[in-house]
């Protein structure tokens, strides 16, 4: 049991760093939790509850970099994320998850390619933005609905959308961290009372995720901008590959 808890802690540490930088930490924690003997449902619920405090901590730690997109204020993004996340949760209760599950790898691949193109191949400055105020609002709403429904890879999707709306990579990463916690709040409120939560593993995973989130936020503030973009693209493509290879 002790060795499993060690692996769970390390998975939380890794997931916290990955979530702070780009997202996709749940795809690290879920396999580890299932290998410890949990059912997929229990692993998903335990992971969601455990990673939530790390998301809040990362968002708060990077609050100085959090901002709106174009003329869309952070308050507006906050409200859009709550509404979209709640709608996604309602959809989850009424439709099968297999449809979105099949779309996840393609969504993450699309977002990663979009981010890579915008970071390394797009020419020009502000004039080359492809998302204005309304575009950023629509993109954030769609991502929020998806986040409330499934959630896998929302970090990459948000970073791609926010950078396409004109935010620098650091600000997009910090804003993404704050909004990720907003999207997951309603799900966590429901899950925390669920008998499927394995609290021993949840606490160990949560501690690792908290430390990893702080480390990832430190890196977000200090890593060279170009290397940060390269790291996000590498995480995105690795996550995409893992999603395509995982059994549905």
List the helices and strands and how they pair.
Elements: H1 2-21, H2 26-35, H3 40-61, H4 74-94, H5 98-121, H6 133-149, H7 154-164, H8 169-191, H9 199-222, H10 225-245
Helix pairs in contact: 1-2, 1-3, 1-9, 2-3, 3-8, 3-9, 4-6, 4-8, 5-7, 5-10, 6-7, 7-8
**Domain count:** 1
What are the low-pLDDT stretches, counting only 5+ consecutive residues below 50?
124-128
- Biggest β-sheet description: none
Number of helices: 10
- What is the element string, with H for helices and E for strands? HHHHHHHHHH
Polypeptide structure, described:
This protein has 248 residues and is mostly helical. It has one domain. It contains ten helices and no strands. Helix 1 packs antiparallel against helix 2 and helix 1 crosses helix 3. The longest helix has 24 residues.
What descriptive keywords fit this protein?
10 helices; 248 residues; mainly alpha; single chain
């Amino acid at each position: 049991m002790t060795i499993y808890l060690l692996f769970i802690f390390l998975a939380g540490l890794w997931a916290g760093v990955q979530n702070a930088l780009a997202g996709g930490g749940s795809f690290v924690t879920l396999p580890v939790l299932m290998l410890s003997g949990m059912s997929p449902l229990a692993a998903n619920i335990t992971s969601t509850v455990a990673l939530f405090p790390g998301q809040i901590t990362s968002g708060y730690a990077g609050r100085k970099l959090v901002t709106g997109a174009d003329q869309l204020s952070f308050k507006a993004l906050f409200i859009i994320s709550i509404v979209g996340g709640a709608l996604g949760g309602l959809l989850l209760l009424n439709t099968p998850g297999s449809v979105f599950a099949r779309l996840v790898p393609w969504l993450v691949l699309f977002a990663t390619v979009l981010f890579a193109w915008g970071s390394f191949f797009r020419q020009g400055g502000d004039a080359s933005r492809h998302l204005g105020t309304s575009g950023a609002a629509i993109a954030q709403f769609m991502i929020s609905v998806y986040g409330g429904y499934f959630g896998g890879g929302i970090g990459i999707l948000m970073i791609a959308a926010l950078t396409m709306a004109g935010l620098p990579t650091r600000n997009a990463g910090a804003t993404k961290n704050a909004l990720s916690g907003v999207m997951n709040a309603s799900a966590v409120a429901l899950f925390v009372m669920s008998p499927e939560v394995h609290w021993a593993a949840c606490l160990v995973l949560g501690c690792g995720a908290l430390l990893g989130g702080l480390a990832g936020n430190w890196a977000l503030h200090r890593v060279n901008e170009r290397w940060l973009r390269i790291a996000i693209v590498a995480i995105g493509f690795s996550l995409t590959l893992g999603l395509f290879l995982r059994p549905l």
